[in-house]
Amino acid sequence: MSYRYFAKPVVLTVAVGSIDGEALSLISAVAARLTTSNAHVRLKVVDTNTSAKASELLATHKADLAVVRGDTGGLEDARSVLLLTHGVVLLMAPSTASGDSLGDLRNTTIGVIGGAINRPTVDALKQVYPLDRAKVIFQDVSIADGATALSSGRVHALLAVAPLTEKYLTKVRQFFQREHPKGSAPKLIAIESAGAVANVAQYYESYDIPKGTLRGAPPVPSDDLTSLRVSYFLVANKSVNNGTITDLTQSLVDVRRDLLSQYPILAQAAAPSTDADALIPIHPGAATYYNGNQQSFLDKYDDKLYYGSLLLGSLISIIVAAWRFAGSGNTPQSMLEPLYEFGNEIKGAKSEAQLEEIEKRIDDILKSELARNANGEGADSPAMAALSLTAHRLQYLMSHRRTMLRKLN
Length: 409
Description:
By secondary structure, this protein is of the alpha/beta class. 42% of the residues lie in helices and 19% in strands. Strands 1, 2, 3, 4, 5, 6, 7, 8, 9 and 12 form a ten-stranded mixed beta sheet that branches.
């Protein structure tokens, strides 16, 4: 709470884009939660529709943060803050289709859900598999058109990249409901050379889809099946202040707990890699938080509070002395001096309850002085300036003491 006395909220612009709008919904909920919890760092969300556009806004400094997929280009200045989830490459076909692995497919048209966003996936597969020679054709298909394209025979299989959560898996199953009205599940086609693909396109990694992911009984797949996955990150431009990112990272971890029941995908959120050769280097501010090296409020500001208080105290003493020397003592008695003495009481307070009582007494005095001044009975401008400085100093002392007590407890 005391931090808010000394710093206004910092607002960072975050660019978010996804073909299904789920990323926008998630980050908007996070932004709303940061606002309602009075977090020091807040988010202004900009919908970019695609990860590529979000990356572009980040690179051109039109956004401070962005939600991006690891295979998105233009991330040279990006630094990871949070690993949000993993998207798994799902290569799906009707259970009647021949071929159980990508290398077995011949004369096949594969519909690519999402089109351009998954073009890097197709390019990576083509670097390892001779798909052109096998007459395997890739055709862009929208999410809305996936089921129709499959049932009409326009495509023989579908390629999608999605997190393995029930919400996304339900959407995947819907692609096959028209093809199989009785509800039989599709089969998954293995990318058996996933390790080789990951070697040539390092934003991917080999991943085994667990047995029964699409259906439990009978299980689909019938055993763990090799595929690829790619990570989704919240990234910041490397120029964003380290301390700001440290504060944001801590708030995001807190928000994750609060929103987990509403957004189960947050269960997959984790600290990004801190390795020197990580795909996207971690932001130093985020690394500070994850390594447990963040400074507390007092670590950052204790000296400034202490010396600022001394400076204000000295300045007030000079004004009071000058005021007396000028003969202002002939005006109606001001409560400036007893107000100034509250500093010692604040420093000696043993509990927050004592601080609240002192604060109430200070408020009463200030209200009285302001009322007198409004009626023309109070002090002149120099005295009011001194009163303002005194109130400011007491605010510093009050915040400092309250934070000290909380730290001791």
